[in-house]
Amino acid sequence: MNKSAKLIIIVIFLFASAFILNFCAKSNKKTADKKIEIKKSFYSMGTFWEIKVISTNKNKSRDLKTIGLAIKRVKKLDEILSDFKPSSNVSLINKYSEIKPVKANPDLLRLLKLSLQFYRLTDNSFDVAIGPVMKIWGFYDKKYAVPDETNIKKAVFLSNPRFIKTNGKTVFLEKKGMMIDFGGDGEGYGIDEALAVLKRRGVKNALINGGGQITAIGKNVKGESWKVGLLNPLNKNKIIKIIRLSNASIETSANYENRFLYKGKYYGHIMNPKTGYPVDGNTLSDTVIVKNKYFRYPSTVADALSCSFFILDKNQIAGVIKKLNKPVKIIIIKKTNKSQLKIYMLK
Questions:
Q1: Where do the DSSP E strands lie in the chain?
Q2: Would residue 252 count as lying in a domain?
Q3: I want to staple 251 with a disulfide (CB 3.0 to 4.6 A). Which of 69, 97, 239, 306 is the partner?
């Protein structure tokens, strides 16, 4: 073989090698940048949670760490806001009712301020001081009972947010036996804070599900809005409506999840703070959807409103929305006399 032929072979070999290396580099980059869904599940605030993030193979480790930090934030809030943990800030405040003010965690103070705003906004239907009523019905210790009228009136008197005093650093419950309870908006606040962790670390596409309460940003792994199923209250194995969610929060309140049977009648956990009795009517569930851009704490807002709207009628709900003066979508499912479902859409 002459020198020219060898040179041609060498050039061809180098060109082929460069092509193969370039192809591999492009393939590796394509694989590294491929969108994938990563998720973690955990238990906190008395319910099961799941956080999903749309990541890439390249960023998977970083985003898994970010999810871990969001989980840590939620569990930290549970340590502060839990009614069931003796060492929580809430438990200490309740323990020293009428005795002395208790130093409050900044998160508790922030959520308490929001809760008191919801109380005024919803014509006193959202009640962060509902603890005494929840307690006498057995929803704390699971020793369910139907209280007598005297005890109900006493519990209603104690369940008055006007007896809650704050000075910016402490919380004082003026009456002995008072109990604050963040069951109506604590999960929503946890979701908002978890989402804040994700966004601070650059996550653009994610979904957080805290016990069925959901917030979603961006798109799913297919590049579409996230899909959320609305359950049939009479058959939780069936979905009656698919809702597309992006940069929005959704919360459903219903009495069929937490209730007890007494003398042939069911009593649910959603209490009317004005009467001290569980809400009793033909509303099976109500779902509130808010756009995240309109609220600093959108999931907290959806959580509190859904609890309140379960108590209020359509005209009262319309009045609350008017005072709020921000767009809110509401889906109310009622049971007809023939045990069928009727869906109402309010905006």
A1: 35-44, 47-56, 102-103, 164-166, 170-173, 206-210, 213-217, 226-232, 235-245, 248-254, 259-262, 265-268, 271-272, 277-278, 283-291, 328-335, 341-346
A2: yes
A3: 306
Strands (E), 141-190: 164-166, 170-173
- Is 323 part of any domain? yes
pLDDT digits (tens, 9 = 90+) for 221-237: 999 999 999 999 888 88
Which contacts (CB < 8 Å, 24+ apart) does range 103-110 have?
A: 103/169, 103/170, 104/166, 104/169, 104/170, 104/171, 105/80, 107/77, 107/80, 107/81, 107/189, 107/193, 108/80, 108/81, 108/171, 109/166, 109/168, 109/169, 109/171
2 pLDDT exceeds 50?
no
CB atoms within 10 A of CB 283: 22
The domain in which residue 41 lies consists of 36-53+203-346
> Using CA of residue 83, residue 84, residue 89, residue 93, what is the dihedral sign?
positive
Give me the sign of the Cα torsion angle 203, 204, 209, 214.
positive
Burial readout 33-66 (b: 16 or more C-beta within 10 A, e: otherwise): eeeeebeeeeebbeeebebbbbbeeebeeebeeb
Please tell me the total count of domains within the chain: 1
Which range among 30-34, 176-180, 222-226 shows the weakest confidence by mean pLDDT? 30-34
pLDDT on residue 28: 65
* CATH number, residue 217: 3.10.520.10
- With a cut of 60, say whether residue 15 has pLDDT above it: no
Q: Say if 102 falls within a structural domain.
A: no
The Cβ-side half-sphere exposure at 55, using a 13 Å CA radius, reads 19
Query: What proportion of the chain, given as a percentage, has pLDDT over 90?
Result: 81
For 138-153, what is the mean pLDDT? 95
CA dist 186 and 304 (Å) reads 9
Q: Is residue 40 part of a domain?
A: yes
